[in-house]
Task: inverse folding
């Protein structure tokens, strides 16, 4: 099955088409869908005093407390299924977003931009009014050393979030509501350090909550 077949399937709305999309997605899930990227250095133009970008643009460290610290991938997600991981090298508090956006030059985000679908490590595990834009989990469950994994499935138009290889949330919005997608990361608190890593294989992910 080629890309044109997939495009035709994605436009369908009948049950057989939905079943076919599910089967195709399941088949592709047997592959390694690692999305390799770095953080775009253009994000540093927003507020160069808020954070540093090191290790060949793979590690973010906050040096001030500010929401002027959005990072996006240097390239868009173009595979049918994409998987990437971010390690919380140092995460003392909440205030971190992980997800996707179709705004490659985004500089500021506080949870209310509808061009983003993301996961937020909430201080109390609650949504705080960001329904449909942001899924949440309890920040106490993911301290320093935790791995946040993100599966961007363009076939089924959905995004899944994993904590240390286990599914913890599924985006409530369809990815098709956005345009060309980029990895999106934002953090508020000083000393928060995040790094692109490759810890868990796609085939190892535990998809039952």
Result:
């Amino acid at each position: 099955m080629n890309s044109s077949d997939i495009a035709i399937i994605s436009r369908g709305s009948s049950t057989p088409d939905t079943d076919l999309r599910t089967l195709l997605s399941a088949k592709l899930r047997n592959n390694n869908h690692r999305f390799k990227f770095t953080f775009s250095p253009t994000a540093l133009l927003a507020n160069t005093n808020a954070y540093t970008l090191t290790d060949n643009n793979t590690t973010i460290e906050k040096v001030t407390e500010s929401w002027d610290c959005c990072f996006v991938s240097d390239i868009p997600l173009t595979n049918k299924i994409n998987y990437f991981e971010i390690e919380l090298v140092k995460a003392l508090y909440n205030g971190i977003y992980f997800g996707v956006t179709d705004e490659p030059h985004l500089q500021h985000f506080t949870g209310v931009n509808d061009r983003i679908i993301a996961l937020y490590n909430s201080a109390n595990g609650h949504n705080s009014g960001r329904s449909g834009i942001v899924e949440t989990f309890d920040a106490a469950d993911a301290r320093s050393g935790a791995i946040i994994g993100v599966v961007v499935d363009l076939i089924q138009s959905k995004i899944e979030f994993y904590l240390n290889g286990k599914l913890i949330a599924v985006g409530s919005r369809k990815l098709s509501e956005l345009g060309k997608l980029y990895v999106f990361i934002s953090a508020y608190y000083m000393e928060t350090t995040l790094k692109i890593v490759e810890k868990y294989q796609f085939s190892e992910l535990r998809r039952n909550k």
Summary: The domain at 33-200 is CATH 2.60.120.920 (Jelly Rolls). Confidence is low (pLDDT under 50) at residues 1-14. The longest helix spans residues 15-28. The chain has two domains: 1-30, 33-200.
